[in-house]
User: What shape does this take?
Amino acid sequence: MSEQTALAGSEKKLLAGHYYEDLSVGDKFGGYVVTVTEGMISAACGLFLDIAALHRDKEAAREAGFDSLIAPGTLTAGLVIAPIALVAGDASATHLEDHVKFRGPVLAGDTLDVTLEVTRMEPKSNFGLVEFTIHAVNGERRLVAEVVTLMGHKYKAGTPSAT
Assistant: This one.
């Protein structure tokens, strides 16, 4: 993946690692795109012991009204949350929590386009809290997942809040 730039709002680049002071509420990051494959679904089912028929049996998925296998929620959540690492980079102090809402099915063959927005910031003594709202849409531009993630971002050396 090449270096990605922000969507709207202030210009930010993924992969750079953003310290608390580098971010502002309203900053948006985009450009993370991933296509879900049957192999990914199979691997996730094995890893997370998710044996639901809709994840592993094409006929069961078709009978339920889906064109292909459905990705397990754990796979979808992981793919949607993963870009946080690109934003935080080495400036990440900790990953505190995730609140995931599945808004629609993710199918084998779907390409997810993931965007992140800084929605809240709060300075603390050891690191700053940064809340991101993450949206994932499929190729039809339908929202399939929404995540609110709380991260701890390091302060830059010499920043008063860092002492």
